[in-house]
Specification:
The complex is a heterodimer of chains A (about 130) and B (about 160). In chain A, helix 1 crosses helix 5 (about 115-120) and helix 2 runs parallel beside helix 3. Chain A has a single domain (about 5-125), classed as Rossmann fold (3-Layer(aba) Sandwich). In chain A, strands 2-1-3-4-5 form a five-stranded parallel sheet, sandwiched between helices. In chain A, strand 1 (about 5-10), helix 1 and strand 2 (about 30-35) form a beta-alpha-beta unit. Chain A is globular. Chain A has helices at about 15-25, 40-45, 65-70, 90-100, 115-120; strands spanning about 5-10, 30-35, 55, 85, 105-110. Chain A has about 130 residues and is an alpha/beta fold. Chain B is α+β, with helices and mostly antiparallel strands. Chain B has a single domain, classed as CheC-like (Chemotaxis protein chec), CATH 3.40.1550. In chain B, about 30% of the residues lie in helices and about 25% in strands. Chain B is built from four helices and seven strands; from the N terminus they run H-E-E-E-H-H-H-E-E-E-E. In chain B, strands 1, 2, 3, 4, 5, 6 and 7 form a seven-stranded antiparallel sheet that branches. In chain B, strand 6 and strand 7 form a beta hairpin. The two termini of chain B are about 15 Å apart. Classes of the chains: A alpha/beta (about 130), B alpha+beta (about 160). Chains A and B meet through helix 1 of A and helix 1 and helix 3 of B.
Chain lengths: ~130, ~160
Amino acid sequence: MKKLKVLIVDDSSVMRKIVERALRQAGLELTEVLEASNGAEALAEVQKGGLDMIFSDINMPVMDGLEFLKSLVGVGAAKGVPVIMITTEGSEARVVEALSAGAKGYLRKPFTPEQVKERVTPLLGGGQ
Amino acid sequence: MSLATKSSSPMAVAFDASWKTILECAAFEVFEMMVGVRPELNSASTGAPTGEQTAMVGMAGALCGMTTLRCAKATSARFAALMLGGTATSDASSSGDALGELCNMVAGNFKSKISTLADRCLLSVPTVITGGDYSMETSAPTQCIIVPLLFEGQPIWVALLIHR
C-alpha cells in the first residue's frame, strides 16, 4: 500500500485529529500528517512540496477552504495533489463550486471511516 | 398568521413544526457518528438550559438564527476525549473546540435535511462561551426549539433560536 504524506486543514484541532484517525481507520498508511488551521497556513505547507493528498475544511477564518483551493492554481507543488473538501454545509452549490475549482471529492461532516475510505480509495491510483 | 410564518423577505423559509424532530435526528446522527454515543431524550427536563459551556453557530439567509449546544464542562471534556479516541486526555481548549464542532455539525446536518434551507442558509464558524452566568442580547427569537438530552446521566441541550 502506498504510504501517504497528507495535509489536514481545519480551524478545529479536534477535527484535524478526527480526520487523521478516520484516515488511519480507513486503512491508509500515513507517513506524515501535516496540519494547518486555515487556508493561508495550508498554502505555505503546500509550497514546501511532497504532499500526496490534502483534506480541507471549507468554513474557516483568515482564508476559507474555497479560497485556498483556488489559490492552489499555479502552485507547482500542488500539481497532481488531490484535494478533498470537508464541510458541514449541506449546500450542493458550495460542493459544486469546490469541484469546479479543482477539488477531487468532498466529505460532509459528520462522516464515518467507511465514507472516508469511499472518497479516498479512488484517488490512490494503482498502488492499492 | 403567526410571526413565525410571516416572511420578511421572499427568501425566508417558514418555520415548520417538524423541525424539532429533524433537529433531534440531526443531533443523534452527529453524536453517533462523531462521538460514538447515542444520548437519550431527556423528557423529564423542564427548565432552561444550564451548564458552563455553550457553543453557538449563527445561521443567516433563508433562516436567520442560531444553533446552540450547552452542557457542563465535564460533559464537553468527555465528548472531546471520546472524539479523540476515547483514551486521550482532553484539556479545556479541546473541550470547547469539540463542543463547537459538534454544534457546527448539528447545525449543518439540520439544514441539510431541509431542502429549502440547504443551499440558502449559511453557517458561521462556531463560538464557544465558557461560564454559566451570561445572557445573550439578541433580537427576540420568533421560535425556539429546545431538545433536552441526557448523556451518561448528564444533561445536554441542543437549541435552535430562529429570528425569522
